[in-house]
Amino acid sequence: MKTRVGFLGAGRIARALAGGLLRGEKDSWELVASTRTRESGEDFGKAIPQARLYPEERNPDLVRESQIIFLCVKPQEVCGILRQIRPATADKWIISVAAGISLATMAAELAPSARILRAMPNLPSLLGRGVTPYCLGPGWGADDRERAKKLLQRFGEAVEVDEKLFPLLTVLVGCGPAYFCAFLAPLFRFAVESGLPAPEARRMLLSTFSGTADLLQQTNLDPVEAVRESRTPGGITHAALTILEEREWQETLRRALDAAWNRAKTLEEV
Ligand SMILES: NC(=O)c1ccc[n+]([C@@H]2O[C@H](COP(=O)([O-])OP(=O)(O)OC[C@H]3O[C@@H](n4cnc5c(N)ncnc54)[C@H](OP(=O)(O)O)[C@@H]3O)[C@@H](O)[C@H]2O)c1
Question: Could you say which of 97, 132, 162 is where a domain stops?
Fold first, then answer.
């Protein structure tokens, strides 16, 4: 029998999660998603053609018709939606991926028998290569806890954590793909401007980075140690790293991470 899964919000993370669910098991799921505007629904429909699409007025129908509901809207939209869907949430699994929205906030707005889960997935969930820290609200039985973990493992690694860690994990896991892409973009531009055809630049740079990540993971090599090993005084790597250090890039990155963490903590307190 198919599991009916609803997505409240059909933007970037909903597309990644829906795609991750369907990977290799297209027939196990029946998907429905809702959006505020028609355009947003059309983008989701192109990526996930088998999903039914509802306008926001039908959010309560989406919840009624689904066994598992992913809440994938911006944090400022969450409270309004929780109030809108409350009468339909008895015994449903509600999985929120919204930054800054606590289990307590959700529990206060939803039916007491709703099972609430808070998660912070990331975009590689689409390929089953993501990381999803999560925590559970009250009332989950042992079997359902296990089923919930298995569901999240379809997106990659699922790690149960203390809810206090969510602001930090939002900065590291949720935003992590954006830092990587921000770092990659100038390297890619440099490669193309310096004469490498774009498709080859893309293929070789991505393989270099994914290979390096695998190397660190599989050999347990410390990144600081890896940098030291690849840096010969007077050599080519040294020339590049020296410029980065003169520009205090590590301090700049640290300031960026602190700013993101402060923003995530502020959202949590609202
Ligand atoms: N993007 C990530 O990598 C990522 C990772 C982890 C967690 N998150 C969290 O996921 C949430 C969504 O982020 P996102 O990047 O996917 O945002 P997004 O691309 O802007 O998508 C938000 C979606 O919510 C829809 N929406 C807004 N109000 C709605 C309503 N009342 N009823 C139904 N749908 C409604 C939007 O429709 P319209 O476009 O028509 O307004 C849009 O489809 C955020 O809370 C974020 O913290 C994101």
Answer: 162
Atom of ligand 1 nearest to the CA of 35: 34
pLDDT for 27 equals 85
Cite the beta strand spans of the chain per DSSP E. 3-8, 29-35, 52-55, 68-71, 93-96, 115-119, 130-136, 156-160
Q: What CATH number is attached to the domain comprising 42?
A: 3.40.50.720
| Closest protein CA for atom 39 of ligand 1 | 40
3-state secondary structure at position 262 = helix
Q: Is 45 in the pocket of ligand 1 (CB under 6 A)?
A: no
pLDDT of residue 269: 75
In the chain, which residues have pLDDT < 50? none
Residue 85 in contact with ligand 1 by CB distance below 6 A:
no
Phi, psi of 70 (to 5 degrees): -95, 125
Beta bridge partners of 70: 7, 95
**CA 101 / ligand 1 centre spacing (Å):** 13
Domain stops at, among 162, 197, 215: 162
For residue 212, what is the domain's CATH number?
1.10.3730.10
Look over the chain and give the mean of its residue pLDDT values, rounded to a whole number.
Answer: 96
Rounded Cα gap, residues 169 and 72, in angstroms: 17
Please tell me whether residues 142 and 191 are part of one structural domain: no
